[in-house]
């Protein structure tokens, strides 16, 4: 299948108080049009930074990003929209819903007033919000409604790829479920591709086709949703999965989360997960593991997997 997005070996390091933080440190992934990728990992693993690199909000210091066959590092395209983590805080409190949603179109300058209003109404309908909210300010909306306004703002630009950074983490269970159902239906209607950033694997399981698991700036495992959930290969993925109660007896045997995420300004040699991994061997502390394809399309970066000990 032709790839809409290809990310090749991108890296982004922040500098804070003289230390170099390797937030994204050599990540490659790809996504076909109309498919959804879940990007998971603990806090600080580099998910938002990777999302911002793909959206052109940050420019990688290394590597390339191709979108529909063109190189786009550091470029913000209307066809890639990023909905911020805590996007509701990113809504200008002085702007009404209508203006918030149409802002991107005004900047583009392509549409007349009436065309813009029609598009705002279509976007509002697409996210399931009533027209009565058009002239409200953000503080007059619920959290779920604000999140929908943020998504409408992105959708009005007719994106081909929508990057949603923790879209449901600030919502209650019902509002979250409604939003996930909305994302599913929009994908079918508009043939949109998604990158859904979430530390909640249950959310990813509901909405995504593929999963990439990040640890300390690297992807340690990727594959189809069913591969990752039914036969996780990396110890870290197993730990993340164990955090979600499941009736599946296989899942009950998963290892509990242990240790703390590594500090991205002091990344250990070898496999960056090895200080937390109870199964680490000599090789793990000396050589970074390459990806090993355990079944077609299911890749795991772990020395133990390569020697089939897991
Ligand atoms: N503007 C910044 N300046 C310096 N360091 C930053 C900046 N933004 C992020 N970082 C650091 O980069 C690393 C990756 O951060 P990032 O926000 O990408 O993680 P994340 O996986 O999205 O985490 P979370 O799940 O908490 O949102 C972290 O160690 C973070 O402290
Ligand atoms: Mg984040």
Overview of the structural elements:
The protein has a single domain (3-79, 159-306), classed as P-loop containing nucleotide triphosphate hydrolases (Rossmann fold, 3-Layer(aba) Sandwich), CATH 3.40.50. It has 10 helices and 12 strands. The chain has helices at residues 47-55, 97-108, 113-126, 143-155, 173-190, 201-207, 225-230, 235-242, 249-252, 303-306, and strands spanning 3-16, 19-32, 36-40, 62-67, 70-71, 80-83, 161-165, 193-197, 210-215, 218-224, 292-295, 298-300. It has an 8-stranded mixed sheet, with helices on both faces. A 4-stranded antiparallel sheet has the order 2-1-4-5, with helices on one face. It starts with a strand and ends with a helix. 42% of the residues are buried. The mean pLDDT is 90. Bound molecules: adenosine-5'-triphosphate and magnesium ion. Magnesium ion (MG) binds at residues 47-48, 85, 165.
Q: Which key phrases capture this entry?
A:
310 residues, binds adenosine-5'-triphosphate, alpha/beta, four-stranded antiparallel β-sheet, binds magnesium ion, eight-stranded mixed β-sheet
- Give the N-terminus to C-terminus distance in angstroms: 31 Å
Percent helix, as a range, is 25-40%
Q: Could you give me the name of the CATH homologous superfamily?
A: P-loop containing nucleotide triphosphate hydrolases
What summary fits the major beta sheet? 8 strands, mixed
**Estimated structural class:** alpha/beta
Principal-axes shape call: globular
Overall tally of domains: 1
Named once each, the bound ligands are:
adenosine-5'-triphosphate, magnesium ion
Total strand segments: 12
Overall pLDDT metric: 90
CATH class: Alpha Beta
């Amino acid at each position: 299948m032709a790839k809409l997005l290809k990310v090749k070996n991108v890296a982004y390091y922040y500098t804070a108080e003289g230390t170099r933080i390797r937030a994204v440190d050599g990540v490659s992934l790809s996504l076909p049009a109309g498919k959804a990728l879940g990007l998971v990992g603990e806090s600080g693993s580099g998910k938002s930074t990777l999302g911002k690199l793909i959206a052109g909000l940050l420019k990688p210091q290394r590597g390339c990003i191709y979108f529909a066959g063109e190189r786009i590092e550091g470029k913000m395209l209307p066809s890639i929209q990023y909905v911020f983590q805590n996007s509701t805080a990113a809504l200008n409190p002085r702007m009404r819903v209508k203006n918030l949603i149409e802002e991107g179109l005004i900047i583009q300058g392509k549409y007349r007033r009436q065309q813009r209003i029609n598009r705002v109404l279509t976007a509002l309908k697409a996210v399931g919000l009533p027209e009565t909210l058009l002239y409200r300010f953000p503080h007059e909306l619920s959290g779920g409604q604000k999140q929908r306004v943020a998504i409408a703002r992105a959708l009005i630009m007719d994106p081909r790829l929508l990057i949603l950074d923790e879209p449901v983490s600030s919502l209650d269970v019902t509002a979250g479920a409604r939003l996930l159902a909305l994302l599913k239906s929009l994908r079918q209607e508009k043939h949109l591709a998604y990158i859904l950033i979430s530390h909640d694997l249950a959310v990813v399981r509901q909405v995504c086709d593929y999963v990439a698991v990040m640890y300390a700036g690297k992807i340690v495992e990727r594959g189809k949703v069913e591969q990752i959930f039914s036969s996780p290969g990396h110890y870290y993925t197993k730990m993340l999965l164990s955090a979600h109660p499941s009736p599946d007896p296989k899942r009950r045997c998963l290892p509990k989360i242990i240790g703390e995420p590594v500090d991205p300004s002091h990344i250990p040699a070898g496999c960056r997960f090895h200080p937390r991994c109870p199964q680490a061997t000599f090789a793990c502390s000396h050589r970074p593991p390459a990806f090993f394809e355990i079944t077609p399309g299911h890749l795991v970066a772990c020395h133990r997997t390569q020697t089939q000990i897991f």
